[in-house]
Design goal:
It is a single chain. The chain is an alpha/beta fold and about 500 residues long. The chain folds into 3 domains: about 5-105, no CATH class; about 115-375, Rossmann fold; about 380-490, Alpha-Beta Complex (Outer Surface Protein A, domain 3), CATH 3.90.930.60. The protein has helices at about 5-20, 25-30, 45-50, 55-65, 70-75, 80-90, 135-145, 160-165, 180-190, 240-250, 275-285, 300-310, 320-330, 365-380, 385-390, 435-440, 450-455, 465-480, and strands at about 70, 95, 100, 105-110, 110-115, 150-155, 175, 200, 215-220, 255-270, 290-300, 335-345, 355, 395, 400-410, 410-420, 430, 485-490. α12 (about 300-310) packs across α13.
C-alpha cells in the first residue's frame, strides 16, 4: 500500500508533476487521446510510441499511465534524484532489482492528482480493485450541488475524487467505503493533494456515520445488476437494484433539512411493472423531494454483453458468463435495465416527485440547474392557485434563446417555426406560436404576471382577458417547471 508523505514532500511532488506537464489538458494533447491502456482496445503499442522520446513527462507516463517498468539508471537521467526518492518513499514506484515498477495509476482530474489501481487490474479480477476517475464518477462530479456545505458525505468514495472536489466548498467531508484498499487510496490522495478537511472511514453503507447528518451526500455505489460479486467497486450482494433502493429509503435520516443526496444508480424494469412505479415505491414515505433523471435503457441481453466485456477479458468464459447472466434476469423477470441520477432533498411538508427521461449531453453549470429546478418546484408549490401565480414577477431564464426558421417563398422569407431553446443544462426546446413569443417578451422580471397579462390582453385582436389570463398562466407554469422561466422575488412595477 502507499505511504503518506508529509505536507512539504507532497507539495514538491505535485509541483514536479505540474511543471513536467502531467496535467489533464496536456496529456490529451501529448497522447493524442486520453484513453487508458487496454488489451481490449489494443492501444499499448500506440501509447509506447507516443512516449518513446526519453523525457521526464514520458518517464512519468510510462509508469503511471501505460503501467510499465523502467530501468533505474535510465529513469534517473530524466527524473531528479529527490523526486525519485519521494516516488519510492511514497510507494508510487517500487524497486525490483535494476527495475523501477509503478505501484499505482496516477491521473490528473479537476486539478487533483489521484492515485488508483492500474486499469490492467480488471484483467486480473482483483476483487478489491480501486477504480480510477471513470465516466460515472466524472458525471456525478459535474452534477454535484456546489453550494456551501457544513458537512458532506461521499458514500462509497473509491479513490476519493468526489471528496477532493467537495472539500473545496465544504467545511468538512466524510469519505466512506467498504473496501479497505479504497479508504487507503482515498487517504493517500487527500494527503498528496494537501486537503486536510476530509475524514476517511471504513464501513458499509451508512453504518460508519450513524447518528450524523449532512448538507450533501454524494454516492456512486456499486450498482451493477449482475449475478456475481467479483468486484467491490461495481458489484453488491443484494438482489437486482436492492442496494440503491436501500440507500434511497435510508437517506433522510442522514440529511439535514434542505440537504441533498445525489446518487448515480441502475434499476430494473420487471414484467408487469413500469419503471416509474418501481422508483415510486423507493421514494414513497422518504420525507424528501425527488428528481429522477433517467438516462439510458438497455435490454438484458445488451446489458449482459456490455458488463461481461467491461469486467472480464477471458473470452473462453464468455458463453458460461452470458448464460449465467441471462438465467438470472429471466428468473427475476427483468425486461429492461435503466440508469440515471436520483436527487433527493429533505424537506418538511408535502413532497414532490419528478421523473423524466433526460438527454445525455447536458452543458453548463449543472449544480445551478439542480438548485434552480428544485427552487422552481418550491415556487409552483407556493403558487398553487391562479391568484397567487398572478402576483409573481416572471422572467425568462438567462440561457433562453428564441430561434426562428424561415423558408423562401415567392421571393420573400416566410417564418415557419419559432422555437424556445435552453442553451444550458439539458438541451430542452419548445415550439411556440408568435403570440406566445410576444407575450414572453413582456416577462422580464419588471412586471407582475397580472400586469404582463393585462398589457398583452390590451393589444388589438386579443381574446377576452379571462381567456388570455388562463392561457398565459398555463404557459408561465409550464415554463417555470421546465426551466425556461424564473420569478424575481420582488421588483418595482413599470
Amino acid at each position: 500500500m502507499l505511504k503518506l508523505l508529509d505536507a512539504d514532500s507532497s507539495r514538491r511532488l505535485r509541483k514536479f508533476f505540474e511543471e513536467t506537464g502531467y496535467t489533464e489538458g496536456n496529456l490529451r494533447k501529448h497522447l493524442g487521446a486520453a484513453e487508458l491502456p487496454s488489451r481490449q482496445l489494443r492501444n499499448e503499442a500506440r501509447l509506447l510510441d507516443r512516449t518513446s522520446e526519453h523525457t521526464p513527462l514520458n518517464a512519468l507516463l510510462r509508469w503511471f499511465w501505460v503501467g510499465i517498468a523502467q530501468q533505474r539508471g535510465r529513469a534517473a537521467t530524466v527524473i531528479p534524484s529527490k523526486i525519485l526518492a519521494l516516488l519510492l518513499e511514497s510507494g508510487l514506484v517500487k524497486a525490483e532489482g535494476n527495475s523501477l515498477l509503478p505501484a499505482a495509476m496516477l491521473l490528473h482530474f479537476n486539478g487533483f492528482f489521484v492515485a488508483s489501481d492500474h486499469a490492467s487490474a480488471i484483467e486480473r479480477k482483483h476483487a478489491e480493485l480501486v477504480l480510477w476517475p471513470n465516466p460515472t464518477s466524472r458525471s456525478l462530479h459535474r452534477f454535484a450541488v456546489r453550494r456551501h456545505s457544513r458537512a458532506t458525505l461521499d458514500l462509497g468514495t473509491g479513490s476519493g475524487i468526489l471528496s477532493l472536489a467537495a472539500a473545496q466548498f465544504s467545511d468538512s467531508v466524510v469519505a466512506t467505503d467498504l473496501n479497505p484498499r479504497a479508504t487507503a487510496f482515498a487517504r493517500f490522495n487527500a494527503h498528496l493533494n494537501g486537503v486536510e478537511n476530509i475524514e476517511i472511514v471504513e464501513g458499509d453503507c451508512f453504518a460508519p456515520v450513524a447518528g450524523r447528518r449532512f448538507d450533501l451526500i454524494l454516492s456512486n455505489p456499486p450498482f451493477f445488476i449482475t449475478p456475481q460479486t467479483d468486484h467491490l467497486f461495481c458489484d453488491n450482494s443484494m438482489e437486482l437494484d436492492g442496494l440503491c433502493r436501500r440507500l434511497v429509503k435510508e437517506a433522510r435520516e442522514y440529511l439535514n433539512e434542505d440537504g441533498y443526496m445525489e446518487m448515480l444508480c441502475e434499476w430494473v424494469q420487471v414484467k408487469g411493472e413500469p419503471w416509474e412505479e418501481r422508483l415510486g415505491e423507493w421514494l414513497e414515505g422518504t420525507g424528501c423531494d425527488a428528481w429522477v433523471m433517467k438516462n439510458f435503457t438497455q435490454d438484458p441481453e445488451e446489458y449482459a454483453q456490455r458488463r461481461i466485456r467491461e469486467t472480464s477479458h477471458d473470452a473462453s468464459q464468455d458463453a458460461a458468463s452470458y448464460a449465467n447472466y441471462m438465467h438470472y434476469y429471466r428468473h427475476q423477470g427483468v425486461q429492461a435495465i435503466h440508469d440515471g441520477l436520483v436527487v433527493l432533498r429533505r424537506r418538511e411538508g408535502k413532497n414532490f416527485v419528478r421523473m423524466e427521461e433526460v438527454p445525455s449531453n447536458p452543458t453548463g453549470d449543472l449544480s445551478e440547474m439542480i438548485l434552480s429546478t428544485f427552487a422552481a418546484h418550491d415556487l409552483l408549490g407556493k403558487c398553487d392557485t391562479a391568484e397567487k401565480l398572478l402576483t409573481i414577477h416572471p422572467r425568462l431564464a438567462q440561457d433562453v434563446r428564441l430561434e426562428q426558421i424561415c423558408t423562401i417563398s415567392e421571393g420573400n422569407w416566410k417564418a415557419e417555426t419559432l422555437t424556445l431553446r435552453l442553451t444550458s443544462g439539458f438541451p430542452r426546446h419548445l415550439e411556440v406560436q408568435p403570440q406566445v413569443a410576444e407575450f414572453l417578451s413582456l416577462c422580464d422580471g419588471s412586471r407582475t404576471a397580472v400586469s404582463a397579462i393585462l398589457e398583452f390582453a390590451s393589444k388589438p385582436n386579443s381574446s377576452s382577458p379571462d381567456k388570455v389570463a388562463t392561457e398565459c398562466l398555463g404557459i408561465i407554469r409550464k415554463l417555470i417547471e421546465r426551466g425556461f422561466m424564473t420569478a424575481a422575488e420582488s421588483s418595482p412595477e413599470r
